[in-house]
Amino acid sequence: MPYTKNHNNEESTTTKYMIHADFAIEGIVEKPDVVGALFGQTEGLLSDDLDLRELQKGGRVGRIQVSLIIRGGKTKGNLSVPSSLDKVETSILAAAIETVDRIGPCNAKISIKKIEDVREEKRKKIISRASDLLKKWETETSQDSSEIHDEVIKAARVGGITNYGPLPAGPELNSSDTIIIVEGRADIAACLRAGVRNTVAVQGASVPRAVSDLTKKKTTIAFLDGDRGGDLILKELLMYSEVDYVARAPTGVEVEDLKPKEIVDHLGKKVPIEEAGFVTEIHANEILVKAIKRKQTRGGTKIKGKTIPPKIATKVSPEPTQEKKRTHVQASSGTRRQSYQSRDSRSSSSPRYQSRDNRSRRPHPRSGGDRRSSRDSRSSEYYSRPPPPKIPEELLTFVKDIDGKEKQEGIFLNEKKKQVKKVKVISIYDEIKKAKSSVITVIFDGIITQRLIDACEEKNISTLIGARIAELSRRPNKTKIFSFA
Question: Is there a contact between 82 and 3 (Cβ–Cβ < 8 Å)?
Answer without folding.
Answer: yes
